[in-house]
Every structure is written in C-alpha cells, then in structure tokens.
Amino acid sequence: MPVSGRPTHPVYDPGCPNGNSFPARPHKMPLMITSQTDVQTSETAIPRGRSWLPGAVLYVIWGFCCALMITVAVIDYFHDGGRHWWEPVVWEGSSMLFVTGLLIAQRCLGKRYSVYVEQPARWFGHHLKWLPLAVVLFTVLVYGTRNGIYALLGETYRHRSWDSAFTYEAIKVTLFVCPWLGVIFSFESYVHMQEQQRRVLTMQRSLAEARLAQLAVQLRPHFFFNVLNTISALMQLDVARADRLLSRLGDLLRGSLESTAQELVPLREEMRLLELYAQVMLERFADRATLQWQVDENVLTAAVPAFLLQPLLENAFKHGVERTRVRVRVEVVARREAGTLILIVRNTGSGLPEDIREGVGLRNCRERLQVIYGDAAVLTLRQGGEVVDASIHLPWREQPA
Amino acid sequence: MIRALVADDEWAARAKLQMWLAEQGDIEVVAQCVDGFDAAAAIEREKPDVAFLDIQMSGLTGLEVAAQLENSGAPLIVFVTAFNQHAVQAFELSAVDYLLKPYDKERLLRTLARIRTRTLDRAARSNAVATARAQTSSGERLLVPENGQLLLIDRDSIEWIEADDNYIHVHTAQRSYLLRRTLQDLLCQLGEQQFVRIHKSAAVNVSAIAALAPLFKGDHDVQLRSGRTLRLSRRYKNALFDLMRR
C-alpha cells in the first residue's frame, strides 16, 4: 500500500533518543466522547418535563365539551319554546360543574391506580368501583344546586321523582364516565410509554458505558511481568539501561492509568504512549526489530480513543517479532484521507499461518470502536505474503485546542 | 561439572542467567539458545544435564521443546515463565522445576540446590516431559532432525513407524525420517488412539490403512493408502481390530 503521508519520523533508532518524538502536551485536556451530552439531550428530548401536557390537553377538550353541551341545551330549549334562557344554563351548568368535580377528583385520587396502567382490566375495575358513590354524590349535589338557584330566583325547580331521577342520572353518568375513562386511560398509557422509552434509552446508554468500562484499555499482566524481568536482568548487566527502561515503564503505566476507555485524546498523546510502549518492546527485542513511524504532522490534532493502537502494536510484536527469528520491521502509519483518519500498524516477517486468529486485544479494539463510532469505524486485518497489516479507519474528528 | 543449556528469546534474560550460573563454579553453560528450534537442536547435540527453557519463545515454546524430548533421555528441565498460571499449576502438581520471572538469585540457588541433589533422578525428567506433553498439543506434530535442521511434521501425514535398534524410521507417503527415540516413547507422544502396533517393531497410523487381507495362520497384510503393504502379526491383531471397530 502506498504511503501518502510525509514521513515525519525517520527510522526509529532505539539506541539514541532519550526523549520522545511525541512529547507530552503541557495541558492535557481529555475530551470526553459524546455520551455525557447525549444523556442530557435525551433527557430533554424525551419528555419527562412534558408530562403536564396530556393533562392540560384533557382539560381543554373538556372545556370545549362543556361549552358545546350548554350551547346545544340552550338552542334546544328555545326551539322547544322555552322563555327563560338561564334555565338550560343552570341545568347543564350544574351538571358540568359537578362532572368537572368528578374529573378533578379522578385526576387527583386516580393517580394511585396508575401502577395498573399495564393491566387495563384492573385499572378500569379500580376506577369503576367508585361509580355508585359518584352517582349518588353527583345527583344530590346537582339537584341541590338547581333547587338552591331556583329558590334564589324565586322559582321552584320541578323535576321527576327522586327514584326516577337517580336512575336517570345513574345511566347518564355511567354512559359518560365509561368513554371518558377510556380517554384518560389512553393518555396515561401514552405518558407511561414515553417514560418507559426514556428509561430504556437511559439504560442502553449506561449499558454502553459499562461495556466501554469493561473494555478499558489495560496493559496485559504478561507485558508487565516480561518487562519487570527484562529490568531485573538489565540491572545485572547495564544499570543505566535498566534505569531508562524503568522510567519508560513508569511513564507508560501513568498514561494507561490516566486514560479511560471512553476518553478521546489527541493523536499526539496516543502516539506518545504508543512510542513509550514501542521503546519498551524494542529494549527487549532490539536485536530483532526495527520500528518506523510515518505520521503526518497535520493529523496529530485528531481525536482518537486512548490506547487504541497499543493492542495492534502488541500483536505486531507478539506475532511478528516473538514468533520468528528473522529481523522484523514494524511500521506505524497515520494519515488523513478526506473525512477519514487512517491508522495502520504493519509488520513484516510474520511466520503466522494463513488463519489469523483474533485475540482478546483485537476483539476489544473492535468492540470499543463499535461502541464509540457505531459502523462509522472499521478495523481490518490483512495478510499479504510476509506482511500483516492492521488498519483502522475512523471518522475524522478534530480535538479542540 | 553440571552441563547447562539456557534458552530465552531475550538477550538480557539469557545474559543474566548465564552470569549467575557461571558464578557457581560447578556449572558450565554449554549452549545459549535464542528460540525453541535452537534449543531443541542444542539439546540433541550437546546432551546437557539441565536445560533452562523459557516458555514464551518464538518458533517452538519451551513447553513444545520439552514435549518433543524422549522421556527417558531428557535432561533435567527447569521451565522459566513470566505469567502462565495454567502451566504453573501443572508444574506444581507434578513437582516440575520452574522459575517465575522475574526471579532473584536466592530463588535460582534453591533450584540449583535441587538440581545438584537430583541430577540422576529419572522421575524428575519424565515428569517434566509428561507435563509438557499434557500442556501442549505435542501429539499433533513431531519434531524431526533433517540435515542439521529441525522440521515439524504433522501427525496425520505419518503413515507408519518402524523401529530399528536405537533408531526410528518415520514414514510419510512421500519419504521417511530418522529419529533417535524408542518406539514406546514415540507412541506415547503421538497418542495410542491413532497409532497402533502391528508387530514388535512397527506401528501404523490407523487412518492410513486402506485394507486388511487375511493370510495363513491368523497373520494379515495391511495395505496402506499409499500402496505399501505391511505385515500384521497375529499377536497384535486384536488390538488393531478393536481400535478400528471404534
């Protein structure tokens, strides 16, 4: 594959550089990925704060019903040759007033039945058991009110006998209450469903976060034991080298402890940690490997998940260097192509059989990309002849300064 | 003088062990090996008394090297490993010597003390080889010398094995290899499920058999897929029939 980027770092020479080609930035400003802001948007977008709305809509609809009923009653009244306009207003008005009372009572007291919203039969059952009391209260209050108003106006309210009035009102209230409960039930179900959806979204998000935390990048214990052993051996042979390796290991450990799985860091920082890792590995296998960096200067500001490339480089050493006797060349490439950041770790001299089995490191890497970028990021592993080529394509994101 | 072999793919690790062993006075490091093949060849060539085998080596791991050794003729083996809980448990169970990286001089001296008192202990050698065989799929591949090089051949490509004094001829369809092992030990490594004796000094790969033709007095002709015909002695007839019936 042609390398378009300007090689900014010539062949890596393990002997000479004491420093690091990608020095740490004075102010490391970790950029959190979107998960936190996502949580906020989801909470405002999905309507905990909106749950007052269905209630208001209910009252508006109810207001219209009342107005309509009174108007119809007045028209009917004059059509039938009535003469006192206030009579139908009193009749319908008193009915509407107390039905509204029932409604409000349902809104206030019916909340305790909200838990049954997923079991409609129980929900309706619990509401309907109050129907007889509602009928009695309603009839007594309505007829009482009408009698009172008539008396105030010096008239007498003539109505049917009390027992037929009760029957009539019972039928009327029941006929009204049942469909109305249906309307309320659908509103409650709607609110409940919204709430559920919001919860599911929140849960999904925390699951994704937990998954990321689980995938948290870690240097494998094996790596540490091996490096400790190298240091222990070097101490007997070359104290200065042992010292240098120890301080590199310290920097690397610090870097890995500071980063979390969901953190995006500038590529410059990622390259600094990667180079530390490479220096440690080269100290162990200097006689068997060379490392080349082909990193475009202008991609160092890109945002990438911390420690994304370390498992790839680890694989290059594990399968390339530790499995073969020939001298191995490892290359790290970073460049930009339009809206895509391309990162490649390549090693030669792989004595690997045809099937490249994906280890834990590679699988974790893949899963992290999936959680953070969805399908927008791709990790591919290819073998052509002696060369094994692991490349990651990421959507280009700049790390704000 | 105890003759020791050191195998590790890191130069620093080799140098440290070499230095500490040389300090002892009664130990001579006869070979330093950089990978598994190197170690296997050096063990064959130098016949050391003790071999320090790093487990994580290129080519063949230390366990694979040990698994290919002849059980009775193997040197004392000390495995050296950084982090291999599984193998370490196996070593503990079968009392095989091992060093956990990083180890200090005191720990090495304890191992050396054991080596000095047990240099002739047969059980210690075969324990190491048996444990290594159990820890690797050593039955699937066989390490054979070839013009000073070492080759790994697949168990499945082996048709039959023939014992000849202290040597073994391993025959594949194409050619044969010469190996200094006993037939018993080789069959133990390759697994007695797939290879079965057909007479005192020969064994055949069951899956390479094309046909059996009865002969006079209960002997049989064993025809191989490659066309070659071998003789099945009646003493071993039942074992082969049992295995083929399975």
Summarize the structure.
Chain A is 57% helix and 13% strand. Chain A contains eleven helices and nine strands. Chain A has helices spanning 35-45, 52-79, 86-109, 120-128, 131-152, 162-214, 221-237, 239-258, 267-285, 310-321, 360-373; strands at 9-12, 31-32, 263-266, 289-295, 303-305, 328-337, 340-347, 378-384, 387-395.
Total of DSSP H or I helical runs spanning 4+ residues of chain A = 11
CATH architecture classification name of the largest domain in chain A: 2-Layer Sandwich
Low-confidence stretches of chain A: 1-19, 25-49
- Average pLDDT rating of chain B: 86
- SS-derived structural category of chain A: alpha+beta
Q: Find the count of extended strands of chain B (DSSP E, 2+ residues).
A: 15
Judging by the overall fold, what is the CATH architecture of the largest domain in chain B? 3-Layer(aba) Sandwich
CATH topology (fold) name of the largest domain in chain B: Rossmann fold
- Overall geometry of chain A: rod-shaped
Catalogue the unreliable spans of chain B: none
Number of domains of chain A: 2
Name of the CATH first level of the largest domain in chain A: Alpha Beta
N/C terminus separation of chain B:
52 Å
Please outline the major beta sheet of chain A: 6 strands, mixed
The SSE order of chain A reads: EEHHHHHHHHEHEEHEEHEE
Beta-strand percentage range of chain B: 25-35%
